[in-house]
Write a structure and sequence with these properties.
Helix content: 10-25%
Order of helices and strands: HHEEEHHEHEEEEHEEEEEEEEHEE
Strand order of the largest sheet: 5-4-8-9-18-17
Number of strands: 18
Number of helices: 7
Largest sheet: 6 strands, mixed
């Protein structure tokens, strides 16, 4: 309790993550090329991608996993304007170096999308301030499990992407038969279907962000494609010893699109 009082939310979350690592004698140094900074060595504190860090830029394997797919996408589709749904991390760092105009944002409950809050752009992925067909790329790491209506969020991303644009993201994916709803907001009231589950936040600290969904590996592509995207789920390995691969959802907006009729409150 004493350390939680003196540490910032960012360091509280970091300390909590460190507590999940393997015993020190199991840690490994792994040689591989960092897709963000070009560093050659990784610290493997546990084989899970979230516990693998580049020793040069200190990014973890989950955040780095989007970068190889960003590079792949840029080879065939120009990326002039991109939106990253956070204000930190390796994905954002890479985009800043390689994309002309990058929007970075956080979500502030009760604030309007497009509003600047304490110097930070607020965006609610369910209802953004971006114009139709105004972006070439959207990225996020571990966001959509915290979105009350995730399908409405995918539809909004589809709306604001230009044809040929892509949404690249990670979420925790479970081997359950279908995506499970853990909570919802109904008439302004928060309704829980299970014991409330919270994830850590670099901004707000440990166990500070409510989880609305357990997404299933078996239907995530179907859920995202229901709004019009062509979807694949791709395995990305960042360094030796990593297990399992990071599953990255690659949602492509076709050049010729027909927007489907949606019930944005649907649940698979």
């Amino acid at each position: 309790m004493f350390f939680r009082k003196i540490l910032s939310p960012r360091w509280q979350a970091a300390a909590r993550m460190l507590s999940w690592s393997d015993p020190l004698y199991k840690w490994r140094i792994s040689k591989s090329l960092c897709p963000n900074c070009g560093g050659k060595y990784f610290l493997v504190m546990r084989p899970d991608p979230g516990m693998i860090r580049c020793l040069s830029c200190r990014a973890n394997g989950t955040n780095l996993s989007l970068i190889p797919l960003i590079k792949k996408h840029r080879k065939s589709h120009p990326v002039r304007e991109a939106w990253e749904m956070s204000t930190y991390g390796a994905t954002l760092s890479f985009l800043r170096k390689h994309v002309d105009h990058v929007y970075e944002s956080e979500y502030f409950e009760g604030k309007i999308s497009g509003e600047i809050v304490d110097g930070i752009l607020n965006q609610d992925v369910q209802e953004t301030s971006f114009s139709d067909s105004s972006l070439d790329l959207i990225t996020s790491n571990q966001v959509f499990e915290h979105v009350p209506d995730d399908i409405k969020g995918y539809a909004e991303c589809f709306r604001v992407l230009r044809p040929g644009g892509a949404l690249l993201f990670t979420v925790p994916l479970y081997g359950i038969p279908a995506t499970e709803k853990l909570a919802e907001i109904r008439d302004g009231e928060l309704i829980y279907f299970t014991k409330p589950e919270y994830h850590d936040s670099r901004a707000a600290g440990p166990e500070s962000i409510l989880t609305f969904w357990h997404h299933s590996l078996n239907d995530i592509a179907e859920r995202v494609s229901s709004v019009g995207f062509d979807v694949t789920v791709e395995d990305v390995f960042i360094a030796p010893y990593q297990n399992p691969a990071t599953k990255v959802v690659h949602a492509f907006k076709p050049i010729s699109t027909v927007v489907p009729h949606l019930n944005c409150g649907q649940v698979a």
